[in-house]
Amino acid sequence: MQGKPPKARAVATCQSAFMSKRISRSPADPAARRAGDCRDRKACVCCAAIRRAQARSLFDPLPEWRSPLTPGVQGVNLSCSMDGLSIYTELGRDWPRMFAHLTAVGAGMVMTHNLAAVVARKMPYPALTVTSSGLKAASGAGGLCVNFAQLGSARAMHLRRAGRHIFGVEFCDLEGRLVHRFTPTAENVGDAFFDWVRLHQACSAEQHFWIDEGDDVFPDEGAPARRRLTDAGAMASTLAVCAERAIAVNATVVSVGIRQRATFTPLSIQRDGDWWFVSDDDAGLHFHPLLLSSAEVIRSGDAMALRCGLADDVDGWLTLEAAPETPTEQWTEALQTLL
User: Fold this and answer.
1) Do 71 and 191 meet the contact criterion of CB atoms below 8 Å apart?
2) Does residue 149 contact residue 138 with C-beta atoms inside 8 Å?
3) Burial 102-118 (b: 16+ CB within 10 A, else e)
4) 311, 325 contact by CB (below 8 A)
5) How far is residue 75's CA from residue 58's CA, in Å, rounded to a whole number?
6) Span 197-211, pLDDT tens digits
7) How confident is the model at residue 224 (pLDDT cuts 50, 70, 90)?
8) Structure confidence at residue 89 as a pLDDT band (50, 70, 90)
9) Which domains does the chain carry?
């Protein structure tokens, strides 16, 4: 007598930032609190990691999610499962740099997947030698080879499972299928891993090319302007750096038929729902990252500006430039993560 054929198993996928469903929970939402509740926060390793991550970051967009993945990460890069037990941070795609820095995390489980098999090894993440083209990399003793051209997305994860916390990073191919995963061991889930997540979040590394433009954004400069595409989350990142280093900026808001510019030195950066607010004692700026389109770093000579258009092809934009009193070197350093 023949048995029933086995059912096909679901393929694990890693969705990109554009495909992931964002779930925003209020601090008063019982589901959000229940998922992250801890009976003994003083002794809990995860709670200790949260406190350290918050101390090392300028802000925590979603402290109610009770995860060390959220401090210092732009809200647009965060997603959560419906039950609140799985939290993800979308990462950028600067593959050689990401893999090079992953060696600092320490030992963990290195796993590679296909549709029929999984191979895993507990070891420190191996150092990779990158080819001259920058498209491939390989390790020696680690036995790992990577074709960067075939990677499509990556995300860090925090999974709450049966009284324990699992942290790691997943890499997926161009079709969104999970192909590689690294989960640090419990003793190695420390500040280095969460620093790595904040450094490589998908707020500024989505594009890596310049586009020549014929029209100048800065009329006083004779050189043609060049524009580099990046992510709209870069606006909040740049303003956070300006608040930390007391860098004076010009913020220009352009609408239909009207334009206004304010010069101020951000004293703090705060979030109220989906809106962000930066200000000093005299001026300030509200902005909604989800309503901004992809940002552009515009360079003409030594002058640089960060400009975001509006989503859905609505007329208008938001531009951030150095204030007249801000040294060029200081402003360039603030934008360095976007270049």
Assistant:
1) no
2) no
3) bbebbebebbbbeeeee
4) no
5) 13
6) 999 998 644 444 433
7) very low
8) very high
9) 30-199 (3.40.1570.10), 210-338 (3.40.1570.10)
